[in-house]
């Protein structure tokens, strides 16, 4: 079972539009309403792959009730922590060339008792979890040290923990030695405080995160692929996706993490699963998560011969 923790879940509305024109009335060609949040998407991808998952999250108001209802429809066990504030609603505008414009609401402010209840809910389900995936931004009311507390709690229970967050929340949790961290290029650049122009730059940045406490670093490099830097070695994985097949990159990184964890969470085979899941996700609308039939493993290339000098298409820069 893979346990996910989403401190700031959302109700996500994605509209497919021909073109984004400011100040104009836009007519959508497609619309989806999905439960959102990075950990939520990991659970959705795990469930779509046929594995058991439990999703822990704070939920409040009508949007929170709808999130729980939608997840139950996807055969996901929800462990809700009731909160006074309403769960946030986000909007995404997807253009045919894959460009995505997102409007993310801040979400409710959690009280100290609600924060403790969230930690308690994770502790209650940790004993049966093979992995705990803690993902996304922290809501108002939780300090950056909250993820560090969660990492320490997970290790006390004997569970392995994967962390997908950024900024102070990521850095403050590294001393707790999370088993895997999953930054994208910009988040990796932000963590080390310098631009990343090549794959080699990303490797060096990942090694720095490992020196600070991360067990392994699974880095999403956008269209260039993914990088795994771990105690067992360093591998680079890629899968070309034709531009005309790209529909939305919402949740692609979350699908990648789900594929990685479901495949064991270590080594080149898990990296190949991560790349296959991410490539499949961008070919689907909104934040639809791929099923096994959507995967194209033959199109994935994983190598230990990392192309260090390759320039990154989407170069990372500190925010």
Order of helices and strands: EEEHEHEEEHEHEHEHEHEEEHHEE
Count of folded domains: 1
CATH superfamily: Ribokinase
What is CATH's topology name?
A: UDP-N-acetylmuramoyl-L-alanine:D-glutamate ligase
Number of strands: 16
Give the C-level CATH assignment. Alpha Beta
Helix content: 25-40%
Q: How many H/I helices?
A: 9
End-to-end distance: 35 Å
SS content category: alpha/beta
Mind summarizing the main beta sheet? 10 strands, mixed
Share of residues in strands = 25-35%
- Based on the structure given, which CATH architecture is correct? 3-Layer(aba) Sandwich
Domain Carbohydrate kinase PfkB: 20-292
GO molecular function, one term: 1-phosphofructokinase activity
Family: Belongs to the carbohydrate kinase PfkB family.
EC number: 2.7.1.56
Notes on the structure:
The chain is of the alpha/beta class and 319 residues long. The chain has one domain (2-316): UDP-N-acetylmuramoyl-L-alanine:D-glutamate ligase (3-Layer(aba) Sandwich). It contains 9 helices and 16 strands. It has helices at 38-48, 61-72, 112-125, 145-156, 167-173, 185-192, 199-211, 252-262, 267-281, and strands at 2-5, 10-16, 30-36, 53-59, 77-82, 88-94, 100-103, 131-135, 160-164, 180-181, 196-198, 216-220, 226-230, 233-238, 301-303, 311-316. The strands form 3 sheets. The protein has a 10-stranded mixed sheet with strand order 5-4-1-8-9-10-12-13-14-15, sandwiched between helices. The chain has a 4-stranded mixed sheet with strand order 3-2-6-7. Strands 11-16 form a two-stranded antiparallel sheet. Helix 1 (38-48) crosses helix 8, helix 4 (145-156) packs parallel to helix 5 (167-173) and helix 8 (252-262) packs antiparallel against helix 9. The radius of gyration is 18 Å and the shape is globular. The two termini are 35 Å apart. The mean pLDDT is 93.
């Amino acid at each position: 079972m893979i346990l996910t923790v989403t401190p700031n879940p959302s109700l996500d509305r994605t509209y497919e539009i021909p073109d984004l024109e400011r100040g104009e009335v836009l007519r959508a060609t497609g619309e989806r309403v999905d439960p959102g949040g990075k950990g939520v998407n990991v659970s959705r991808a795990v469930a779509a792959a046929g594995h058991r998952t439990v999703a822990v999250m704070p939920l409040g108001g009508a949007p929170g009730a709808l999130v729980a209802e939608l997840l139950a429809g996807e055969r996901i066990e929800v462990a809700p922590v009731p909160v006074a504030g309403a769960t946030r609603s986000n909007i995404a505008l997807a253009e045919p060339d894959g460009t995505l414009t997102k409007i993310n609401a801040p979400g409710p402010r959690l009280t100290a008792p609600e924060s403790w209840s969230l930690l308690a809910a994770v502790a209650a389900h940790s004993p049966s979890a093979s992995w705990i995936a803690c993902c996304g931004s922290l809501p108002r009311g939780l300090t950056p040290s909250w993820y560090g507390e969660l990492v320490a709690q997970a290790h006390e229970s004997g569970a392995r923990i994967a962390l997908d967050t950024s900024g102070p929340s990521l850095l403050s949790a590294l001393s707790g030695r999370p088993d895997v961290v999953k930054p994208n290029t910009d988040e990796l650049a932000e963590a080390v405080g310098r631009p990343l122009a090549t794959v080699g730059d990303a490797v060096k940045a990942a090694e720095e995160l490992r020196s600070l406490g991360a067990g392994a670093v699974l880095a999403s490099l956008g269209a260039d692929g993914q990088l795994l830097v771990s105690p067992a070695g360093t591998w680079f994985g890629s899968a070309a996706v034709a531009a005309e097949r790209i529909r939305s990159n919402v949740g692609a990184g979350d699908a990648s993490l789900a594929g990685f964890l479901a495949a064991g969470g270590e080594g080149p085979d898990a990296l190949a699963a991560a790349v296959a899941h991410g490539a499949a996700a961008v070919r689907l609308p909104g934040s639809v998560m791929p099923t096994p039939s959507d995967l194209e493993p033959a199109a994935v290339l994983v190598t230990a011969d990392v192309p260090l000098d390759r320039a990154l298409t989407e170069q990372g820069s500190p925010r």
